[in-house]
Amino acid sequence: MLDYYLRIDAVNLSNFVYDTNDLSTIRGGGLICLNWPKAFLPDQVSPVNVKLGDKFADWPEGGAPIPITQGASNAIFSFKAKDETAAACVRDAALKYFRDNNRFHYMTFVADVVRADGAFDMAREQLLALNRFRQLQQPTLVIPQVNEKVAVPADTHPYCWIDGVRAADTKTNAAANVEKCVCKSVDIRREYGRDQKRRLYAMGVPDANAEASTFFPARDFDRLTVRGEQRTALDKKILGNADPFSRLAGKMAVIYVDGNSFGDLERKQCKDVPSQRAFDAYLRDERKKLMDALRSKIQADPAWQVEPTDKVNPNVFHRIETLMWGGDELIWVVPAWRAWDTIQLFFEQTKNWKFNDQVMTHAMGVVLCSHKAPIAGVVRLARALAETCKAIHRNRDLLAYQVLESFDSFAGQDADAVRDRLTPIDVTKEHLIVAAKVARVVEVPSELSPSETILDVMKAFVEQLRKMRGDGKDDETFPRRKLFKLMAAQQRGGRNGDAYKEVIDRLEQEQKKLVTEWHEALQGMVPAMVYHLLEWWDYLPPEKYCTGTVAAAAGVKDANKTQAAGVSHA
User: Fold this and answer.
1) In this predicted model, what pLDDT tens digit does every residue of 88-108 receive, in sequence order?
2) Domain count of the chain?
3) HSE (CB half, 13 Å, CA atoms) of 350?
4) Whole-model pTM?
C-alpha cells in the first residue's frame, strides 16, 4: 500500500451561505460548512485499521482516510491505496458521498489526491493548486429538475419564498404555523441552522449539554435588538426603568474578523504533519477560550438578555448570533449597545496569540446598522472594511467600522468610495482605522511602532470621548452641536481651513483643552477626530453601563470572570 493525501474543499460558498437574508438559512449554511468533516468521519479515528462502516462500503481496501487538518471549509486526510487508480477511486467515493448525502447535496465540493512521498508542505500546496484548478472547471449554472413531486399552492409563487431564485419544491414552517414554499437547499440549511444554533456556544465546557441547556440565543434580529417592555427584570433593576440604551433599540452590530496572513504563517511553520496538527490544535483551543469568554460575558450581563416571548420556553434569551465560526474567520451579530464591549473582549482574548513565537493578529470590520438592513449586504460591507485594514497593515490588529443610518447609501456602491464621500476632504482611509501600536508621534498607521496595542488605543479613545461627552455631569462638556459645526467646517475646507479655525477659536477654554488632550493622546486619529467622536457618541455606553460594571452590580456568579476577561474597563 502507498501513502496518499486527500484534500476536500467546499467552494462557491456565496451561493450556499450568503445567497439569502434569512437568518436561520445563513446560520445553517455556515454551520454545515464548518461541520462537514465531522459528518464525513467519526469524531474519534484510530490511526490504523480504520473502519468507517456501511456508508463507505464502496471504498477501496485500505482507503479509509485519517484527518490531518481542518479549516473553515476544507480538510486534508491521509490514506493508503495500492496505486494511482485506487487513490482516484477514494477521491471519487468521497465526492459520491457528498452528492448522495441530503445535507451536503447542494454544496459544491472539489477533491484531489497526491502521493505522500515527499515533504508535507509541498504536497499541501500542490493539493491547494489542484483544488483551485478543479473549482474553475465547475459548471457555473446548474438547472434544477422539474418540480413534479410537490404541488405549489395557487396563492404562492413557484419560486423559493426565501431566496427568490430557485424553484420551490418543498414547504417550511415560516411563522405562526404558516407554511411557505421553499427550495430544498434553503429548507435543509434553515432546519439545520435552527437545530444547531445553541450547540456552538457550548464548546469548551466540561458538560456541553448542560451548558447549552441554559443558553438560548435570540431567535431573530428583532429579538436581538428589542428594548422597552422586553427588557428583563434584572436589566430594569440594574440599569433603571429609564432605559439608557433606548436610542439604540432596533440597532445591531455586525462584526467580521479575519486572521492576518494565517495562511502564510501556516505555510512557514507547518512543514510536516505533526506541526500542522499542532497548529490546528492551537487555533481550536484558543477559539474555545474565546467562545467561553464571550458566553460568560453574555450570561453575566442583563443588558445582553431579553425576556422570553412564550410560555413554552420560559428562559431568557441571549442577544447574540454567530453566522460564521471556523478557520481564521468569524462573524458575530450583537446589539449595538454591546458592540464596543464585544470588540474589546475579542482583542483582549487574542492579544497573546502566537504560534512558534510568531504573533497572530486580526483585521476586524464592524457595521452598526438597523436590524432590518439586509444581512447579506451588511456582511459584504463588514468584510470589505476588514480588507481595508489588511491593505494598510497585515502585522497588527486593526479595526475599521461604519455607522449606517440608511443602508441605501451603500447599495451597489464601492465601500471606500462611499466612505470618502461621507468624510472630510483631508481624511484618508488610514485615519478612519482604529489601529494597534500607533505611535504618539505619527499620524498614520503606515508608520506604526510597537509602543501601543489596540487595547491601549481603544482605552484612550474611550477616555477622551467620555470626557468630551461629560459622563457623570449634568451637561455635556463638549456639546454635540459644536462637533457638528466642526465637521461641517472640516468638510468644506479641512482642518487648516479658515472655517474650521474659526469654530475652534470660539470654543470655551475647557473645550479647547479637551481638543488638545485628544491630539496628544491619539495622534494617529487626529485628522478624523470629529468623525470618530460623532460616530461613537451614542454607541459607546458610559462606564457604569458597560458589561463588567453591570455584571458586578447584578451579582452574577460569572461577573468576576467577566471582569478578568478585560471587558469592565471599556
Assistant:
1) 988 888 888 888 888 888 898
2) 2
3) 29
4) 0.85
